[in-house]
Amino acid sequence: MASTATHSSVGPGRRSRLAVIFNAACLVLGAVLLVLLVVKLDLQQVGARLRQVGWAFAGTFAAYVAGLVVTSAAWQCMVDPARSRATFRNFFAAFWAGHAINVLTPGGQLGGVLRGTILRDKVETEELIASLVTLTFFGYVSQLAFNLAVPLLCLALLDLPPRTVLTVLAVAIAFFVPMTLVYLFLRRGAAATIIRVLQKLPFVHLKEPEAVADKARNIDARIREFRQRRPRPFLRAVLWIALARLLLAAEYWVLLPVLLPDRSLWWLAALALLTQTSAQLLSWAMTFVPSQIGVAEANTTLLYKLLGLDPIVGLTLEIARRIRTLIGIAIGLLIGWIIGLRRTAKGGRDGTPPPRAPVALSKGGS
Fold it and tell me: Which end of the chain is less enclosed by CB atoms within 10 A, N or C?
């Protein structure tokens, strides 16, 4: 859809430069904040806590990779096999490479473009776009549900300062309204609505807008009808996405018994869920900061201090996950590079067009 639109707005280059400068400034300020945190909390103590993590780091990295695996499985469920010849390995490689780009770039949207580029010769175009939109939507909805449920669970099960837990709940509720609007937007036909809005903008010109609108409506129909046409894959996708959310918390959980050995595993599991929820809310609020560097560490450090726990534990958790992220980015970029080399060697295409379903979708759906 983006390829059919040309923009002639005033000063796009200048705005792009300003955006780059702003993001770079956020990155520098975040790095400075991280250094100040480590120094203020005592570098030696932070180092000692990181050494204490030891082999538990392998557990948090395993949970991270498992999360990528199950999310890739959810994405595959969202694609109609009749319109695809991609294997799970293709989905997994595309997802990990896109994940690496999302972590490196503010907003976390360019990874979706890379995923679509990688699979463009293996999945029918409209089905691919619909699956990427659905995957993003499922991710937001599942996280939103966890964000609301986890603070309530902690209030009921954990002996923690209620004011802090209620603050996390309040922030989660604040995100509920816009996400509900997104849901309603999709239900009403997001893609077609976008086309209609674009047509009204003076600085955007669409080639063959009716053809683009037809494709947009087709994508909308596929998103809406996923549950009704393919109920079993839909259920599997929901279960995989829910498991992915739990694995995000598991990244904290495998580290906490080492750092807080006097607490029970169930108590630590609830604390891990609360930590992950707080981190996710911060990620949404600070999406303009690349990788949330500095602010993620400050957030968890402050959370643990407000919870009456050792703030160095919170900082150690995020530094360990930061190391995990760097390793994950390196692997994801390597995967993307290898795929790029293979595509170049094959001339950009493997010569076999992606499959297409013989019957067009209707415009109905729930």
Answer: C
DSSP state of 61: H
**Whether the predicted model's global pTM rises above the 0.70 cut:** yes
Could you tell me which of 272, 309, 308, 303 has the C-alpha nearest to residue 150?
272
- Locate 287 and state its tokens: 């999406």
- Closest by alpha carbon to 183, among 142, 131, 240, 154? 142
How far apart (Å, rounded) are the C-alpha atoms in residues 93 and 28? 31
CB proximity list for 61: less than 8 A, separation 6 or greater: 324, 327, 328
Condensed to tens digits (0 to 9), the pLDDT of residues 46-60 reads 888 889 998 999 999
| Torsions phi, psi for 32 (to 5 deg) | -65, -40
d(CA 334, CA 100): 10
Report the alpha-carbon distance of residue 146 to residue 215 in Å, rounded. 34
User: How far apart, in whole angstroms, are the C-alpha atoms of residue 139 and residue 22?
Assistant: 27
Type of residue found at 58: A
Q: What percent of the chain has pLDDT over 70?
A: 77
Q: How confident is residue 339, by pLDDT bands cut at 50, 70 and 90?
A: confident
**Whole-number Å distance between alpha carbons of 64 and 317:** 14
Contact present, 365 and 234 (Cβ < 8 Å): no
Distance CA 179, CA 277 (A): 16
